[in-house]
Amino acid sequence: MASRPGFPARIDLGPAPATPRGARAGAPVREGTIPGGVGLESSAIRHRMVMKLAAQGVSDPKLLEAMATVERHRFVDSALVNQAYEDTSLPIGLGQTISKPNVVARMIELLLGGRRDSNGRLGRVLEIGTGCGYQAAVLSRLCTEVYSIERLRGLHDKARDNLRPFRLANVHLLFGDGMAGFAKGAPYAGIIAAAGGESVPQAWMDQLAIGGRIVAPTQTANGQQALVVLERTQHELKQTVLEAVHFVPLKSGIA
Ligand code: SAH
What we know:
- The chain has a domain at 91-244: 3-Layer(aba) Sandwich (Rossmann fold).
- 39% of the residues are buried.
- α1 runs antiparallel to α2 (61-69).
- It has helices spanning 43-55, 61-69, 101-112, 134-140, 153-163, 202-206; strands at residues 90-93, 96-98, 122-128, 143-150, 171-175, 188-193, 208-219, 225-232, 237-244.
- It has 255 residues and is of the alpha/beta class.
- It has a seven-stranded mixed sheet.
- The protein is built from six helices and nine strands; from the N terminus they run ααββαβαβαββαβββ.
- Bound molecules: S-adenosyl-L-homocysteine.
- S-adenosyl-L-homocysteine (SAH) is lined by residues 92, 96-99, 128-129, 131-132, 134-135, 149-152, 155, 177-179, 194-195, 248, 250-252.
């Protein structure tokens, strides 16, 4: 695998990481706060977030490692940095939000249920709704290629700025209407939507590989939004409707 400057090569999920540089040894790290100051590490807080995710039922070791590695605080505005590892959604500008870590992990775990290669990686994945780029960064550690499409120019640009320092060679940011999917990258081993529509667009189903999965918040018969998983087998698309969720709307066109 190509080296990716900016990411630690390996994350140990065993004992909590050592006291962050600059913090007093033994001093408690307050829940949900980043040890202040440039150059201080937030890995202890991410480690705690991951422990919480595991307690909530997220069990895929590679996913937990990815969540422990990607620095979520680098994707939110500086005023919100202290909340970056709380289990809460946060505004990312233009009326959009970054999902709670718990929801990000849940959806990716559902996606990973699809067919993986011998290294445990998913193949090409399409993400609808790049937003600030956080989920794309997590996906980059779990999939061979990530195509992420965003319909708002301001957020597409923001995600590019946020992701630049990580130099993720397998993340491809696209500006456009994700309702049409992205045919050039198809077929996909997984398609994950970060915005909820009235139904799953036909284009996504057409661009899904056999053995692949779509995970998308979608309106159900009672008018509420729920997580929907579509799995393509040789002969059919199998649909499973899971728990209720609250995502920003999937909109057509670009802006
Ligand atoms: N995964 C993101 C969350 C983004 S919120 C993150 O980690 O930050 C959902 C995003 O979906 C919003 O930015 C919204 O503009 C975008 N979106 C909504 N409809 C879309 C469409 N048809 N195509 C592409 N992006 C869309």
